[in-house]
């Protein structure tokens, strides 16, 4: 009895789920149909707007081309008039130019002659300046060589004189070294054994100072 009851309940549950599934599927189909219809309407609307936009752009393009053509025609007309005016002015200018060119030609010929004369004068002056500069350089060179020669001779004489004096001092020193100088020191008094040796001591001191300076 329980088994039959259970089977019955299972069939009822199954039927109920199946019914729910069918209902859900039906709703889904209806929703998809509505969506498709909506998309179709949107696409038709988009196509319509696209066509209208295309028509509008074509009309605008046509108007723009017509306007550009009018502007171009007006420009060409003004350009033609301007060219004619420029041609007339060109003829006038050509005549004036030829006249000015002749004047300029005469002026250039005169300037070229003056330029040649000036260049010749400058060349002559430059040559004279070069000669004067060379003369001064040679004179300075001779004076410099003379001064160097005199300076070298003077230095040579001074070296020889110094060498001679140094030799005399050396000989004097040798003589003084051979002389014995003795000092006798007592409280409050200094005396030399030989009074004649005092001049020798002075000479030695002077000689040492001279040698130190040199």
Please state how the strands of the largest beta sheet are arranged side by side. 1-2
Helix content: over 70%
How many strands, what sense, and barrel or not for the largest sheet?
A: 2 strands, antiparallel
What is the strand tally?
2
Q: Helix count, per DSSP?
A: 2
Name the overall outline. elongated
Q: What is the string of helix and strand elements?
A: HEEH
Give the rounded overall mean pLDDT.
79
Kindly provide the radius of gyration, computed on alpha-carbon positions and rounded to a whole number of angstroms.
67 Å
Low-confidence stretches: 180-197
Look at the helices and sheets and give the structural class.
mainly alpha
Beta-strand percentage? under 5%
Gap between N and C termini, in Å? 155 Å
Task: Give a written overview of the molecule.
It is built from 2 helices and 2 strands; from the N terminus they run H-E-E-H. It has 214 residues and is mostly helical. The longest helix has 177 residues, at 2-178. The protein is elongated, with a radius of gyration of 67 Å. The model is unreliable at 180-197 (pLDDT under 50). The chain has helices spanning 2-178, 198-213; strands at residues 183-186, 189-192. A two-stranded antiparallel ribbon has the order 1-2. Strand 1 (183-186) and strand 2 (189-192) form a beta hairpin.
